[in-house]
Amino acid sequence: MSKKPSLHTILSPRLLDIYDISNSIVVIIDVFRATSTIATALYNGASRIIPVDTVDKCIQLGKTTGGITAGERDGKVIEGLAHGNSPAEYPRSFIEGKTLVLTTTNGTKLLHMALQNGAAEIITGSFPNLDAVCNYLSKEQKNVFLGCSAWKDRFNLEDALFAGAVIESIKDHFTIHCDSSLMAEEMYLFHKNNMASFIRKTTHWHRLAQYGLEKDLEYCVTPNVANILPIYHNGDLIVKQDV
Amino acid sequence: MSKKPSLHTILSPRLLDIYDISNSIVVIIDVFRATSTIATALYNGASRIIPVDTVDKCIQLGKTTGGITAGERDGKVIEGLAHGNSPAEYPRSFIEGKTLVLTTTNGTKLLHMALQNGAAEIITGSFPNLDAVCNYLSKEQKNVFLGCSAWKDRFNLEDALFAGAVIESIKDHFTIHCDSSLMAEEMYLFHKNNMASFIRKTTHWHRLAQYGLEKDLEYCVTPNVANILPIYHNGDLIVKQDV
Question: At the fourth CATH level, which superfamily is domain A7-233?
Answer without folding.
Answer: ComB-like (3.90.1560.10)
